[in-house]
Amino acid sequence: MKYFLIAGEASGDLHASNLMAALKAQDVKADFRFLGGDLMQAVGGTLVKHYRDMAFMGFIPVLLNLRTILNNMKACQEEIRNYQPDVVILIDYPGFNLQVAKFVKTQLGIPVHYYISPKIWAWKQYRIKDFRRYVDRMFCILPFEVDFFNKLNYSVDYVGNPSVDSVAYYKEEQSARPDTFRQEEQLDERPILALLAGSRRQEIKDNLPTMLKVAADFPTHQPIIAGAPGIKPEYYQQYIGNTNVKIVFGKTYPLLQHSDVALVTSGTATLETSLFRVPQVVCYYVPAGKLSSFIFRHFFHTKYISLVNLIADREVVQELFGARFSYEQIRDELGKILQDKTYRSTMLAGCDEIIQRLGQPGASQRTATLIYNALKH
Predict the structure, then answer these.
(1) What residue ranges of the chain are covered by domains with CATH 3.40.50.2000?
(2) Please, are residues 334 and 50 in contact by the beta-carbon 8 Å criterion?
(3) Which fold is adopted by the domain 2-160+362-376?
């Protein structure tokens, strides 16, 4: 069968590549065309557009690149029309993908499956009408999403979380070979403070300088930056300056495995950090912090921004964003984790709770089975 997939950022590329591999295991004649990245391309098929040329986030960047975005949309629609796939599989990236879903259902009549639901439970709940009209099957990766969609009379499938798969696979493979991370990266014996400052340039610009300033106050730990895919070392260097802070690329999981504590920009990284049982401070800069906090409290439909707290449905980790994002508050919270053993052990117990709630690995395989069986029948 023919599959057309769309992933608009690095995490989508990872999860889509795992789904493609699982589809190939069930469908030996699987043929793929996609908007995505290097990981999807490594599985096989035709890369139509790289996500690096699509990732415009925020009102101003979108406005400035509106012509490019519209051209990308038109080119994508023509690719699907010409390819005539058996199914279109959308991975998160809602601003772009919901427009594609509308086109595919109304113009082509091709089944649309959505893997990794957009976070409409946070806000924009009105978008549920678009899912009802244009999405045939929704596969969710967060357990609380099932109840959310059920209350809106929209049936979904919970398939497990792909980050659980990725971490489990890493741990299984890592156990089969000697541990050489510290040696390869020429690290000293101090405990590691991991700095995960986001995957986009703007996130890094907004968060990394403060993270580095905080890290400098804890010389007992060596700060290590997790380099994001597609971001060159030179970009980080302007913030690192003459300090001895190291960057590792393509080694986020080994970094987390060896870390004692982490400063993490909100996103999938907060969940991955908890899956490795690393205590963390969630810190995310947004402009006009007090206004942003006001908007979040009064217009969003969720109490938390981090996946860790959302899954636990309580405050496992501190979320220092908006008005709470500051050097002083991040420094104080990090000090509390390092110096208060009871506080640290309570946070680790929260990590264990999250791991239990997410269930066993196998999200990609379960999703592939549901998609393939739906197409066969």
Answers:
(1) 2-160+362-376, 167-358
(2) no
(3) Rossmann fold (3.40.50)
- φ, ψ for residue 280, nearest 5 deg: -145, 160
- DSSP H helices, the chain, are 10-26, 38-43, 59-64, 66-83, 94-103, 128-134, 144-151, 162-174, 181-184, 201-215, 233-240, 252-258, 268-275, 289-299, 307-312, 327-339, 341-358, 363-376
State which amino acid sits at residue 329. Answer: Q
Q: CA of 321: how far to CAs of 167, 286, 293, in Å? A: 27, 7, 8
Q: 372: helix, coil or strand? A: helix
The arrangement of secondary structure in 167-358, i.e. its CATH architecture, is 3-Layer(aba) Sandwich (3.40)
* Tens of pLDDT, residues 208-226: 999 999 999 999 999 999 9
Q: pLDDT per residue over 38-58, tens digit each?
A: 999 999 999 999 987 765 555
pTM of the model: 0.82
- Which residues make Cβ contacts (< 8 Å) with residue 313, sequence separation at least 6? 144
Contact call for residues 93 and 6 (beta carbons, < 8 A): yes
Picking from 113, 13, 9, the residue whose alpha carbon sits closest to that of residue 53 is 9
